[in-house]
Amino acid sequence: MVTTPPITFSLAARDGQARAGILNTRRGTIETPVFMPVGTAGTVKATRFEVLEEELDARIILGNTYHLWLRPGVDVIRACGGLHKFIGWSRALLTDSGGFQVWSLGALRKISEEGTEFRSHVDGSLRFLSPEVSMEVQAGLGSDIVMVFDECAPGKATHDEARASLELTARWAKRSREKFDQLQREGCDTGSIGFSLPADTRGSTVTGNIALQRDCPTGELAMPALPEGLTGAQSLFGIVQGAAHRDLRRESLERTMEIGFDGYAIGGLSVGEEKSVMWDLVDEVAPLLPPDRPRYLMGVGSPEDLIEAVARGVDMFDCVLPTRNGRTGQAFTSRGKLNVKNAQWAEDRRPLDESCRCSVCQRHSRAYLRHLHQTGEMLAGILLTHHNLAFFLDTMRRVRQSIRSGYFPKFRREFIDRLSESGE
Fold it and tell me: Which CATH code is given to the segment(s) 8-319?
């Protein structure tokens, strides 16, 4: 029996509950805690991959199974050699399962034991997404970290509603695990390093309204050499649900750990509950997760949220805030958020953040960025997004350094205090 893992994770330092670690994937090493820029449709909006790699040094980004499945379709991405080759990104990729996006459709979706039927927001066509389909799609995408298909209950769900959601999520997690393992045995991971098949072995099967090639395309994929000790396979993360109910969160955690995953995510937060409730639940769940596996808080969050979650033992994060807010004229700075559209910046020659060393702050003034935004120039969104991503990624670098050096509590206190000095 092969026991070599698809990823490895080790702790380099701890400071209280805060952890600094090393996550090895088949496409390189990621230092944690880490912020993952969101590339929903195969692009981190308003940002070139060269910039992400060369200046910002993002080691991992996130792709969205739901959106990529609907458009351009997994058949197109498979034909192009998997998501990495399709978009021109050689570093690690995590794909979410599509569960949250389907949940957010509200009345447009119908949930059953088998999966979720919904109307596509693209063309109105009837679609069906299940644990099995999600695993097949993510195998076709060839992501390095795959998320199980889950059902996200609203933050204010009643105990009975959250119980039903938890039970369904637990059953779907088991089905996700079984289908994922089958696909890995069959070599259906498009991103598998060095895998090839002769042309006459390619087949097709239809599952859940989509046609998927059962086997990988012909030809070997040019991938980086594997880090020592890894199989080159995809890894699978489980998700802890339970809404705002501590007992259900504990139960979900236990049942998810019984199945066994390469990493564990805390899902279903930042979906309408009070911030204090979110932190109570993270306090409850994070310390109980396996210490030798990465911990991922999904969809969170603001710079202060990242710091607070790190203090509670979380290792991985994603959020659309740096890119979305950048496109709407808002910059994150060490002294709080700054809206460039405000008239007070019309003649301000200072950079967005005088403490920031990114290329935008080294070159451009608040006055110029306001001018770009007020005149509708697309460059405004590009530059603000660049700065925001630089701020988030640099913040995580400083967090890692403070944990390794043993002064994270001091860093946390000073960071949060400075954020209150809003630049607005």
Answer: 3.20.20.105
